[in-house]
Each structure stands twice: as structure tokens, then as C-alpha cells.
Amino acid sequence: MENVTDKAALRRQMIAARRALAPDVKLQADARIAQRLWQWLADHQVKVLGGYLPIAGEPDLSPLYAGLAERGIVLALPIVMERHQPLRYLRWQPGDPLARDASGTMAPSASSDFLQPDAVLAPCIGFTGTGLRLGFGGGYFDRTLAQSPRPMAVGIAYAFSRVEFPAEAHDIPLDLVITD
Ligand code: ADP
Ligand code: MG
């Protein structure tokens, strides 16, 4: 339980820190992350990318999404079909409709196609030097990455949110973390 308490305190601290970012500083940081992700995508074979729409002050990479198709990349967004289950990914492009999923987050409408992403972007409240992700505490990415086959997991985080916490048995490391 000590770990859990630590994680909860870290979550509060890191969410407060990113909410305190000045809008222009955040815009610049998000643009740097987007630029690095763009470069990473140029160097990797990703046909289907699982993205996300930002909540709670997460880096906003959505300006990048419209351009992905030009590079031949299909975009998908996560949906919580059922709580305590892995995420699923539905095809989506900017302009397509969204609806609240079982967790209350906006997701593509259920009439979209399910896709198996080659890589997914995992927004991090915090991340460790060994690539552990601090999420909202739902364990959704851990459950998604526990499946086989699993997509590459690209953490997306602000550099200031590097933290340390001990890995729990279910925590699955990200393959890399892209920061500003
Ligand atoms: P987060 O990764 O979102 O920060 P945690 O790592 O604290 O959250 O995980 C939250 C909960 O999710 C854990 O207490 C655990 O019960 C559950 N969980 C994570 N991965 C799995 C899994 N593969 N199977 C079942 N439950 C899991
Ligand atoms: Mg976890």
C-alpha cells in the first residue's frame, strides 16, 4: 500500500505542476514533443498509430494528427469498452464524431472500425528512468500492454514530470518516452 500512497501523492503533485504551466510555455513544449514524435515516426514503421485527445493538461499533439494521413499513417483513438479491461482502439481522424466511453472520456463513436495499432501514445502524469508510466491509476495502459501481441508504447510526458516510484508487478515499462 505504501507504493500506492506514493503514486497518489505523485499524481496530485504532477497534475498540479502541469496545470500551472503558462499557456505559451505549454504551447512551445507541446510543439517540441510533436516535432520529436514526428521525427520518431519518420524512423519507424508505424502504419496504425494509437493517439489520444488530451485531458487534464496533457500535452496536446492534436495539431499533428491531421498530417499523419499524408505520411500514410492511420490514426486510432482508445476507448474504454468496459471498466477494468484493456483499452481498445477505434479508427478516427480529425472531424470524426466523438462520444463518451465507459470511463466518461471522449472516444470515437462505436461504429468505427477496431484497429490493432503498431504503436500507441501513452500520455504520462509521470515517468521513471526505467520507463515506468504513472497514469491516472486505472491501470488501462498496463492491461493493454499485458496482451500479446502488444503495440510499441511511446510515453508522452513533460520532462519535469520524471519521478521515481517502485515498479509494481503489473506495471509494464514503456518502450520509450518522448518529452519536450
Ligand atoms: P496507472 O498505471 O494507471 O498509474 P496503476 O499502475 O497504479 O495505475 O494500476 C492501477 C490498478 O490497475 C492496479 O492496482 C491493478 O489492480 C490494475 N491492473 C494493472 N494492470 C493489470 C492487469 N494486467 N490485470 C489486472 N489488473 C491490472
Ligand atoms: Mg501502472
Offer a quick outline of the entry.
With 180 residues, this protein is an alpha/beta fold. The protein has 4 helices and 10 strands.
Write the layout of secondary structure elements.
Elements: H1 2-19, H2 23-42, E1 48-50, H3 62-68, E2 74-79, E3 88-91, E4 98-100, E5 106-108, E6 119-123, E7 126-127, E8 133-134, H4 140-145, E9 152-157, E10 176-179
Parallel strand pairs: 1-2, 1-6, 6-9, 9-10
Antiparallel strand pairs: 2-3, 4-5, 7-8
β-strand percent reads 15-25%
User: Radius of gyration over alpha carbons?
Assistant: 16 Å
Poorly predicted runs are none
Q: Give the tally of structural domains.
A: 1
What does this structure look like?
This protein has 4 helices and 10 strands. The protein has 180 residues and is of the alpha/beta class. The chain has a single domain, classed as 3-Layer(aba) Sandwich (Rossmann fold). It has a 6-stranded mixed β-sheet with strand order 3-2-1-6-9-10. It has a two-stranded antiparallel sheet with strand order 4-5. Strand 1, helix 3 and strand 2 form a beta-alpha-beta unit. The protein starts with a helix and ends with a strand. The relative contact order is 0.19. The model has no long low-confidence stretch (mean pLDDT 95). Bound molecules: adenosine-5'-diphosphate and magnesium ion. Magnesium ion binds next to loops. The site of magnesium ion (MG) has 5 residues, from loops.
